[in-house]
Design goal:
single chain; 27% strand; alpha+beta; 14-stranded mixed beta sheet
């Protein structure tokens, strides 16, 4: 075995995802390997070319979270200074070409400095440049970066590691070229700043609109978030909004009909609330004539008196984050048409497949091949090459592609302006739990918040709000949550509200999800229709699940629940 991933041998080493950053756990079975990666050119190379496919194929030594990861840098005096000194010494003395490029992520200017050709390429593909942001939104970015990320490989004095400082809005990576973790930590850093300073909610989720109503999917990896996003697009009157990450602004209507998303509150000239704190303050001071400073949906500054706002009926509006989407190429399993765009995309960690893989996955490959053969560019491949290309897209769960969604759907069916809002009407918490028979349920706030606090993934681990991108000290938050979970999941939200010692970073998150519940209908969706013996295939299960989502949207009842035995009543 090389680089921590399977090679040819008598044992199969299969890695199963534990979280959305790709933490892989080893399961050993007595059979042949199903996929392989080319060997690294030298012992410390962070990236190297893979077998050609698509526009490019880069293999990264680290294919998940780094061995060292530290989001508590601010509590360790002198650490950030040492890390940056090490980074800048590497830049000055290594002789390697270093790239610097600024992008805009929901209004914040973010600078990446890296010596990785792969990372800088994905970085430029993924986000809006300063010029693109100004052209699309009409807004000029800040003169200096709000967030800095430094990612350097071949640094002999440092371990493979990732670090984050909230006080300095800085991310530092050493000796890894895996873009998934870089992207997630940058999003976490941007999200913390937006929440604290502006009350903007960063959510690891996806959005599609149907008939003008936005559906927000929140889910742990492997439960069907991307599948549900693309699946809903097969219905008429739908628009694709986002695949992995959204920014949500909660807004109140004023007496003159304007929508205001609060950022600061001034009372008697003093600032009494900022960012996510403004929502609770307004609820507790309904008659106040304090000045609320915020933004309209067009991001223009608005001010209003607190007593002019309808704080009982907030509205949630989602904004897309990415220009080009970084997503798993195994999307082709459920949506073979995605292969036409994947084959033109830059790929990350696309493996080679073995004969054993081709035999084991013949039915899936057959089904996808039927959709692709005799169609360009696959018509230029012989049968073996076509089938192996198909297999390579889904052999390794964490193979990623940079996909321009406007090549998948007509441009008019895609949100291409990052400042065009989508009103969120429904939020779906997706899970895949075969031990339960419930398919879809309208949630109370107690169930909704408990689900988000516990955040149990299909592998049994816990992930707060299904978002390990969060730039916080996960261990301390998790330990605190365990104390209230011990009193019973049904009582978690009540215990949370009574508690006086909850971590502020957790309170920041849950305050905004409380606003989400007030703004949109909340549902539990369990993607287990394969349990229904009348469902003949995975594609049929996906199709019926999409119909359930649409039916739930049209159901105006405050309380309903359908299981594997009666879900057809909802469809009828």
């Amino acid at each position: 075995m090389l680089d921590g991933f399977p090679r040819h041998g008598n044992e199969s080493h299969t890695y199963y995802p534990n979280d959305s950053q790709g933490v892989w756990h080893l399961a050993i079975a007595e059979k042949k390997d199903l996929y392989t990666f080319p060997t690294a050119p030298d012992p410390i190379a962070p990236e190297w070319p893979g077998t050609p496919i698509g526009a490019s194929n880069t293999i990264t030594r680290t294919k998940g979270r780094t061995a060292v990861f530290d989001k508590t840098v601010d509590g360790k005096p002198g650490l950030l200074k040492r890390l940056l000194a090490s980074a800048y010494e590497q830049i000055a003395t290594s002789g390697q070409k270093t790239h610097s490029h600024d992008v805009v992520i929901h209004g914040l200017r973010v600078r990446a400095i890296t010596n990785s050709q792969h990372l800088i390429g994905y970085w430029k593909d993924n986000w809006y440049s300063l010029e693109e942001w100004a052209r699309l939104t009409g807004k000029k970015p800040a003169e200096t970066p709000d967030v800095l990320v430094v990612a350097l490989g071949r640094v002999p004095t440092e371990a493979e590691a990732a670090y984050y400082s909230r006080q300095n809005d800085t991310v530092v990576f050493f000796n890894t070229s895996y873009y998934g973790q870089l992207k997630s930590w940058v999003l976490g850093a941007v999200g913390r700043k937006l929440a604290v300073d502006y009350g903007i909610h960063s959510i690891h989720g996806a959005v599609v609109t149907k008939d003008g109503r936005g559906v927000l999917y929140i889910a742990p990896t492997g439960t069907g978030k991307s599948t549900s996003t693309y699946g809903l697009m097969e219905f008429p009157n739908t628009r694709f909004h986002s695949d992995d990450w959204v920014y949500v602004r909660y807004a109140y209507r004023s007496k003159d009909g304007k929508l205001l998303s609060p950022a600061r509150i001034l009372d008697g000239g003093d600032e009494v609330a900022r960012g996510y704190q403004t929502y609770r303050w307004l609820e507790e001071h309904r008659g106040s004539d304090a000045t609320v400073i915020g933004r309209g949906l067009d991001d223009k500054e608005i001010t209003a008196a607190a007593n002019e706002l309808d704080v009982e009926h907030p509205e949630a509006y989602a904004y897309t984050s990415e220009k080009v989407f970084y997503l798993r190429s195994n999307l082709v399993e459920n949506f073979p048409e995605a292969a036409f765009d994947m084959i033109r995309s830059r790929l990350e960690n696309c493996p080679d497949v073995t004969p054993e893989f081709m035999i084991e996955n013949k039915p899936t490959i057959d089904a996808i091949e039927a959709k692709l053969r005799r169609r360009s560019p696959f018509d230029k491949m012989d049968n073996q090459q076509l089938r192996e290309t198909i297999g390579r897209f889904f052999a390794f769960d964490n193979t990623r592609a940079m996909l321009d969604i406007t090549t998948v759907f007509p441009k008019e069916r895609v949100f291409t302006n990052p400042m065009e809002p989508a009103r969120i009407s429904a939020v779906m918490l997706i899970k895949r739990n075969f031990d339960e028979d419930v398919i879809v349920e309208r949630l109370t706030i107690d169930k909704f918040m408990a689900r988000l606090l516990v955040g149990r993934t299909p592998s049994g681990t816990k992930e707060i709000v299904y978002n390990n991108y969060r730039a916080v000290d996960d261990k301390s938050e998790r330990a605190w949550i365990d104390t209230i979970e011990a009193k019973g999941v049904d009582n978690m939200w009540a215990e949370y509200l009574k508690a006086k010692n909850r971590p502020e970073t957790l309170h920041e998150e849950m305050e905004m999800f409380r606003m989400m519940f007030k703004s949109a209908a909340a549902y539990d969706l369990n993607t287990i229709l394969q349990k229904d013996k009348a469902v003949g295939s995975k594609m049929e299960a996906v199709s019926k699940t999409m119909r359930i989502i649409v039916a739930a949207l049209d159901n105006t009842k405050d309380s309903f629940r359908y299981g594997i035995g009666d879900y057809r009543r909802l469809l009828d």
